[in-house]
Amino acid sequence: LKRTLRDASLSHSVLIEDVEERIQLRHLSKRDTNSSVPGQFDYGKFNTFESIEEELQRIAKENPDMARLTVIGTTHEGRSVYLLRLTHNITETPEKPVILIDAGIHAREWISVSTAVHMIHELTSKQGAIKSDLLDAFEFEFIPVLNPDGYVETWTGDRMWRKNKAPNNESRPWCVGVDLNRNWAFQWGGEGTSTNHCAQDYRGESAFSENETVGARDWVEKYRDLIQVYINFHAYGQLWMTPFGYSVATPTNEIEMIQYGQVAIDAIEMASGTEYILGPVYTTIYPASSISIDWMSGSQKIPVVFTVELPDKGAHGFLIAEDQVTPVGEETWIGVETMALQIANDKKLLR
After folding, report:
1. Could you identify which of 46, 215, 257, 281 might form a hypothetical disulfide with 245, taking C-beta atoms 3.0 to 4.6 angstroms apart as the criterion?
2. Measured distance CA(50)–CA(271) in Å, rounded
C-alpha cells in the first residue's frame, strides 16, 4: 500500500498502527466491567445498552414532573428504541417547542452515545438558572441509542460494527444490516449510498425499510410542527454540519442554521479550545444521500438541523479513550446549551 501511494505521489500518514491491538487494550475488558449496578450508573464511562436502558427507566421513574420515557420502535433482535422527553411540568404529549437529539445511529461511534447521555445528566441532575430557563422554554427529546442491536454488537462481537443487524439474503455474517443513516426518504439512494449488502453504507431495500428509522420517522411526523432543532450526533472529525448531504444544494434557511451553528462551535472553543469546522455535509465531509438531517430539513422542514461529528480528528477515531467521555460531553453540552439559549431569546421563548 505504501508503495502504491508513493507511486501515485500521494502523501499519507498512519493514525493507528494496530487497530485490533487498540480494541483489545481499551474495550474488550469493558464487556465484563461496565457499570451495571442499579443506581450507580457511571456517566464518566462508556456504558452498555442494558445499563443505559436501566438508567433511562430510573430517570423517568424518579422524575415524574419532568421526564417521560417512550418506546418509539422495536429492533429486529427485540430491543426497544427509547425516546426520553425532558421538560418542566411535562405533559402526556409534547406541547412546547422541541429540541430533538439522537445518537448511536452508527453503532461503533460510542462517544456519540455517551455525549447524549451526558446531556441527559446535565438536564436532570445539575441545577442552574440557564438549565431551568431552557427546561421552561423547550422540551428536550433524546434518542440516545438509535441503533440498539448494532451497539450491542460492538460490545459483544465486532467493535467496529456500523449498521443495524437486520437480516437479508446474504449468508456472510458481515453482510447483514443496513446503514440507518442512508435509509431516510429524502433523495433516497443517491450519491454516497450503496446497493451492496456488504457495504458499510448499504441503504436498504427501500427508504424507511428499517424498524429503527420508521420509529423515528413516525415520532417526527407526529410532532414536526413543534420540533425547532434536530441534532444527529456522530464521531469522528470535529465537524458541525448543515444539510444537504445528497448534493451541493442547500436549504433556503441555510444562513440561519450557519448562524446558530457558529454560536455553538464558538462556545465550545471558548470553553475547551476544541475547534470545529462548520459547513454543509456534502462539501465538508463527503456526499451522503438519504441521511437523517436531509429528511428533517428537506422533507419535514425542521428549522434548524445539524449532523455533528464529535472529537477527535482521527488520532484515536472510533476508539477514543474513555477519559474523554466527560470532557467531550461537557464541552458539547456547552455548545448546545448556548445555542438553545440564543434560539430561545430570538424566538422570545424565555419568560
Report:
1. 281
2. 32
